[in-house]
Amino acid sequence: MHTxxxxxxxxxxxxxxxxxxxxxxxVYECDALSxxxxxxxxxxxxxxxxQVSEVIKVANQYSIPFLPRGxxxxxxxxxxxxxxxxxxxxxxxxxILSIDVENRTAVVQPGVVNLHxxxxxxxxxxxxxxxxxxQMACSIGGNVAENAGGPHCLxxxxxxxxxxxxxxxxxxxxxxxLGNSAGEAVGLDLLGAVVGSEGTFxxxxxxxxxxxxxxxxxxxxxxxxxxxxxxxQTVSDVISAGIMPAALEFMDDKAIEAVEASVxxxxxxxxxxxxxxxxxxxFREGLEETSDAIVEIxxxxxxxxxxxxxxxxxxxxxxxxxxxxFGAMGRISPDMVVMDAVIPRTQLPGVLTxxxxxxxxxxxxxxxxxxxxxxxxxxxILFDSRRxxxxxxxxxxxxxxxxxxVAAGGALxxxxxxxxxxxxFMDLVFNDVDLDVMMxxxxxxxxxxxxxxxxxxxxxxxxxxxxxxxxxxxxxxxKRVEAVLLRGNxxx
Amino acid sequence: xxxxxxSPGRIVSPESLDELSGLIASEKGAIVPVGAGTHLEFGxxxxxxxxxxxxxxxxxxxxxxxxxxxIHVEAGxxxxxxxxxxxxxxxxxxxxxxxGGSATIGGIAAANAQGxxxxxxxxxxWIIGMTVVHVDGKRSKTGGRVVKNVTGYDLAKLYTGSxxxxxxxxxxxxxxxxxxxxxxxxxxxxxxVADAVAALSGVRKGTLQPIACEFVxxxxxxxxxxxxxxxxxxxxxxxxxxxxxxVHEGAEEVAAWERLRAAYAAMGPIVLRVVGKPTDVxxxxxxxxxESWIAHGMNGIVLMALGDVQSAEAVRRKFPAIVERAPRxxxxxxxxxxxxxxxxxxxxxxxxTYDPERRLNPGRHIDGE
Lengths: 492, 369
Fold this sequence. Notes:
The complex is a heterodimer of chains A (492) and B (369).
Chain A: H1 3-13, E1 18-19, H2 22-25, E2 42-45, H3 49-61, E3 66-69, E4 86-89, E5 96-100, E6 105-108, H4 114-121, E7 126-127, H5 140-146, H6 153-156, E8 163-169, E9 175-179, H7 190-194, E10 203-210, E11 212-213, E12 217-225, H8 228-240, E13 247-252, H9 253-260, E14 274-282, H10 287-300, E15 305-308, H11 312-328, E16 335-338, H12 348-362, E17 365-371, E18 379-383, H13 388-407, H14 426-429, H15 432-445, H16 459-462, H17 474-484
Helix pairs in contact in A: 1-3, 8-12, 9-11, 12-13
Chain B: E1 10-12, H1 17-26, E2 31-34, E3 51-54, E4 61-65, E5 70-74, H2 79-87, E6 91-92, H3 105-111, E7 127-133, E8 139-143, H4 156-159, E9 168-175, E10 177-178, E11 182-189, H5 193-205, E12 212-217, E13 221-228, H6 230-238, E14 246-248, H7 250-266, E15 270-275, H8 281-288, E16 292-296, E17 301-306, H9 309-318, E18 321-325, H10 328-334, H11 341-354
Parallel strand pairs in B: 1-3, 2-3
Antiparallel strand pairs in B: 4-5, 5-9, 6-10, 7-8, 7-9, 11-13, 11-14, 12-13, 12-16, 15-17, 15-18, 16-17
């Protein structure tokens, strides 16, 4: 990057606020989707919205791409500098500015770690509901950009349902506020459009989140099954029975094997073909009956063991394995691909059978750990990156799984986002008109295309973005997307 | 028929999505989508109506699979029709717009019409996908049919509340929830605003979780509705702040809320939807002295009846406020949304992008666009 640009960035940020050294920049060449890499030309560490705005103005002056980055835990490449340029790092903006107990809101900066909001508000009897599995590390700003999910979204909704107001910097450097204290749309719901726009509409610099009162009662249980079909039928039966669990998580034998061999060992029944982790919460009154009803549904579907946690410790133990499942995969496989498709939940038995069949056909193992209650699959394709013949199959195998999910009425991503990872698959679910309309809306916010380019839209399309700056790397990235489509590492 | 005082050139009633697309593609004048006609006077004054497009005959429930807890409907289906289909399976779409369930679901979404049931979010929180028809007749979709989805931009948020000024909502997919096992409503009258808000404050800081919480004036009544497992409802009723509560259940509860609905309908001549914090509610009522009001105790939104434009302008200087209902001239003078600055610029850009010739519901949008 031109030294004049670096000098201007240093004037805004101070010397310790800019990194432009090639070696140091290596850290920022990818997010948690480590297979797609592109080094930024500079990283700036923002302390306030004004700095973000000034950096953006410099970027505009020189037509340099720029993008925000929180904790870098994203699994779709949203925080990867696909065309180089400036990464605006938000981790120094990590303060909880205020907590309003009576109005049940908190004002936070984007670099605040998701779990820290709940930790700060728990003594007041409140919590922040969306809980991505990376919640110990991921930033709330990143959650807003990606519309992050988590196990408890089943009952409580995604990030978008819990954001009331934001301050954001538009791609021309203007600082705006969207939403209000009630999250009520006045005119168009621009806030709703920005949440989940994967950092392509604006850079969020302050967030007002809704807090919920901590549920007085919670029941967590584990049910083990000898067949995948019985296990997934139980999911449908629970939902059909009019029960809305707080979480309803599925693990198959491969996942259980990995967990039990790891530090996340939770005492899951090792001979189970599949198991469900089910949680219900709310007032204590009636909770026991709901829990009993779930046990009965499990038994009716031939669950051979149903374990109800008797206390907080047992409950934490049951969750330990589920939350650590992705990390535990290293015990049974050197590498893995995390997928994030979503299907109508009644299609679970058929789609899972098909996924195992596809894995057999390709001769690769697959583990399934996912949010069954809302049909959000996370097939983990297990492979060894040192064996080229395995690597070669992953593209087709991942593609086949994705197609099965879409054919079942599903979608490409339930919570990880499209980013760079799944953009070439967008044609599977959207036609040209759908994508044209999305592109038009993007151009209203981001007319020069400098903010986070080469994301979400298929490569052939991003070359025609209106008024776009450099496209030099787009083709190269497109080729790599095709070549190594779904390889990556997840922490969920 | 007239729409917001304008007599339409012609009225068409397509029976299929293809027919709707074809009609829109061939129309060169101002297009005004209508549903059941329950919200025709909402929004900035309509300027012209060459062709009114009634969606009333697009009234099919396309797919409803109870085990999926989702429903996919055409925009002309009424909320009542949806609830009737759902109730057979003990499920519900937790919406109860003030103007009633005879409104079409497309109209409720386009107007972002709300009611007292707010504890579980508003319509935006239940929509999982949409198909819209654009001004050139082309159709596009956003979202999908699954309950959790981040595939592409969430444009349904933009269409919800856009008053048909960006595109015409043709189909909507919703997620659903199990029906509230039991509901009950407790109503008590207080001596003053101060007494009532002290009780409300107790509710917000305590353990109760009402699914509706209204502070109604000038009677100084608090309406708390609970919906849970029967024993959780009983427990909450037993923990109400001290006052002489009257508890309504069953048909009596339904009748009570119909009375409040009637009170809402009678508010006027100017009704504002003021957005404050819950703790702002007493201050808003004291400062602007509305003739009547219905305040959502849990989210700080106050519906208030004012007698003159000056009072409404005074509110706007301190709080965001939508003109919920008012005669045409007053809506014109006040502007229904009162949005300013760069947010307004973005909204106007959005309108120009979707409808450069200003032919979709002309006048309704921000700033009379």
